[in-house]
Every structure is written in structure tokens, then in C-alpha cells.
Design brief:
The protein has 273 residues and is mostly beta strands. The chain has helices at 2-28, 236-239, and strands at 35-36, 53-61, 64-71, 79-86, 96-112, 122-129, 132-139, 180-184, 190-192, 203-205, 217-219, 232-233, 254-255, 262-264, 270-272. It is 11% helix and 31% strand. The strands form four sheets. The protein has a seven-stranded antiparallel beta sheet with strand order 1-2-3-4-5-6-7. It has a four-stranded antiparallel beta sheet with strand order 9-8-11-10, with no helix packed on it. Strands 12-13 form a two-stranded antiparallel ribbon.
């Protein structure tokens, strides 16, 4: 009986992996319009910012705008790939969603446009799942692009950030270390939209308010848990707390290196001292 249950589990696991890839191919290969985020397209493995939703592409389907997001891995958490839907405005990682998978890492996204028809108009996702590197190719059957594009060229002048475009006549907008790239308030409203994918050196989530989208995020290298640095978020669902603010001296919402304790500073950020 145990052997049968084990085989059923393996079969279901394999089927689920096949389903999400087939579903993603079906959702994308018939689209006629497409905006790729040139910050990550044909740029290799997406590693930073850590633990952050990154918009990879968007397209319109009737009156709905759909956006493909990738949440970068962090510590023992693997990457998540999902599509969200909005009726207007820019892509929102916390909008209505369809999750494809929660178990990949080392993702890269490439747009292929070769001289031969069999190599053109292909969206390629390369990723690591378990110990195996996989590649998913999605033919964009109805998508037309200028002929000047070549394989792995990065000539896509599109951006998911308001008033920012990438190309020969535009300057890339980036955020410096210490800048707030995603701000939430005590009512869990986004007072600063999530632009953490523009941080030059990644982003750090801090413990401030008890919100489903996590705490506010600042640009900079992640040194959480060290002395005079933000405490590492422990996980809001694990705590089960209904407090509006998780920032107070001795708060268990964050953890520090041995010998340090959590304190709430004047900016309402939980730090280690």
C-alpha cells in the first residue's frame, strides 16, 4: 500500500509540473501584443533583488492587462512564477493571480528572433527545478516584431515603471542604496509603489507593519540580523499576530544574530542591537 501511495504521489507531482508549463505556453503563444521588461530580458539569471516580485512581461487580453511576475528566491524559499490581472494601470504583483509554480530558481528570460522562421518569435524561460536545469520555449505565433531584431538582442524599449523607458535616447532610472522602494502604512496600503526591481544592489524588507504584502522595503545589500542593521523578517503568518505594528522592543517578528536583540528605532523599523 505504501508503494502504491508513493507512486501516486510521484505521478501527481510530475503531472503538476507538466500542467503549469503547458498552461503558461497556452496563455502566451497566441497573444498579439507583448511588452517585455528590457531590464531582465536577455540579461542572464535573475538573482536580485532578493525576495521581490519582478515584472517580466505584460500583454492585453480584451480589456484585461495580464502581467507575468517572478518572485526571486530568498534563503530556503524557492522562486514563484505567476500571472496577475488588472483592468487599468501598471502591473500589480498583489492583484488577482494565477500561480504557475512555487519551486524554481535561477530563472532567465530570453527573447529569440533569428533569421529563420523556426528560430524566430520565441520566448524562452531557462530555470533550475530541483537539481535539473530546464528550458521552456514558447512560440509567439501571432506576435510581429521588426526584422532588425537578432537572436538575444536587447532592443526592447519598454518599461513597467511610469515615465521610464530603455533605449538609446533614454537614461535608465535606478534607485540608490537607502532609498525606499516599497512603502506600506499601518492600514496596509502601498504608500510607495513597489519599484524594488530598480534598486542597484538589491532590496531589503524590514519589519514595520503587519501586512500580507510584507513590510516596507529599502534598496541596499541584505545584511539583516547584524548589529545596527534591520532585523530579518521571521514571517508574518507564522506569528499569527493581529497587531497593526510589529515594531516594538523585543518583537519576535524579526530575528538577529546570537547576542543581539530586536529594538524599534525612530523610523518604526525593527533593528538589531
Amino acid at each position: 500500500m505504501k508503494l502504491i501511495l508513493f507512486l501516486v504521489f510521484i505521478l501527481i507531482s510530475c503531472q503538476s509540473q507538466i500542467d503549469w508549463k503547458s498552461s503558461l505556453q497556452k496563455d502566451l503563444n497566441a497573444i498579439t501584443n507583448l511588452e517585455l521588461n528590457s531590464r531582465y530580458t536577455n540579461k542572464g539569471i535573475i538573482k536580485t533583488p532578493l525576495n521581490t516580485w519582478i515584472s517580466l512581461l505584460s500583454y492585453k487580453e480584451n480589456s484585461i492587462k495580464r502581467c507575468l511576475f517572478y518572485k526571486t528566491p530568498f534563503k530556503d524559499k524557492l522562486g514563484v512564477l505567476k500571472i496577475t490581472s488588472v483592468r487599468k494601470g501598471k502591473c500589480d504583483p498583489f492583484a488577482k493571480e494565477l500561480i504557475y509554480t512555487k519551486s524554481l530558481e535561477e530563472l532567465s528570460i530570453n527573447y529569440l528572433s533569428g533569421d529563420h522562421i523556426e528560430n524566430s518569435n520565441i520566448l524562452e524561460l531557462v530555470f533550475l527545478m530541483g537539481s535539473e536545469r530546464k528550458k521552456l520555449e514558447i512560440p509567439l505565433l501571432n506576435y510581429e516584431v521588426p526584422k532588425k531584431y537578432k537572436r538575444y538582442d536587447n532592443q526592447l524599449n519598454s518599461s513597467f515603471v511610469d515615465d521610464v523607458a530603455f533605449g538609446d535616447f533614454f537614461v535608465k532610472k535606478t534607485l540608490k542604496d537607502g532609498q525606499l522602494c516599497h512603502g506600506v502604512n499601518s492600514s496596509c496600503q502601498d504608500v510607495v509603489a513597489n519599484n524594488c526591481d530598480l534598486c542597484e544592489n538589491g532590496a531589503v524588507e524590514v519589519v514595520d507593519f503587519n501586512c500580507p504584502q510584507g513590510g516596507s522595503k529599502y534598496c541596499g545589500q541584505n545584511n539583516c540580523g547584524k548589529k545596527n542593521e534591520p532585523a530579518c523578517p521571521r514571517g508574518y503568518k507564522v506569528l499569527g499576530s493581529k497587531l497593526a505594528s510589529l515594531c516594538f522592543d523585543g518583537s519576535p517578528a524579526g530575528f538577529c544574530e546570537p547576542g543581539l536583540k530586536t529594538y524599534c528605532n525612530k523610523k518604526n523599523i525593527l533593528v538589531c542591537l
